[in-house]
Design a protein that fits this description.
The chain has 100 residues and is α+β, with helices and mostly antiparallel strands. The chain contains three helices and five strands; from the N terminus they run αβαββββα. A five-stranded antiparallel β-sheet has the order 1-5-4-3-2, sandwiched between helices.
């Protein structure tokens, strides 16, 4: 997966259903285009962000994760319920990691 180079490319690729990697710096620079609707710390991989953005008159949903320091991945999802379900799944996985 290659990183998005512009905010327009990021949104176009998300609209196409792609999971888009970014540097943390690019995410920070472009984050204002997104509304954070959910933020959950993981204690292992930064915070998971549930985000929403408007494009072509419609709300779009996604998840922003930190797979490694200095990197972010933006994953488009169908709706807020899908965002909340994936966040719950991720948090459960992290909790199991603590249990060994």
């Amino acid at each position: 997966m290659r990183s998005a180079r512009t905010p327009a490319e990021l949104l176009r690729r998300l609209d196409a259903g792609e999971i888009v990697p970014l540097t943390a710096a690019r995410w920070e620079a472009w984050a204002e285009a997104f509304d954070v609707v959910l933020e959950e710390p993981t204690a292992l991989a930064g915070a998971i962000l549930g985000v929403r953005w408007q494009r072509n008159g419609a709300a779009h949903w996604g998840l922003v994760e930190e797979p490694e320091t200095g990197r972010r991945v933006v994953r488009p999802l169908a709706d807020e319920a899908a965002v909340r379900a994936l966040v719950a799944e991720r948090l459960a996985a992290y909790e199991r990691m603590w249990d060994g």
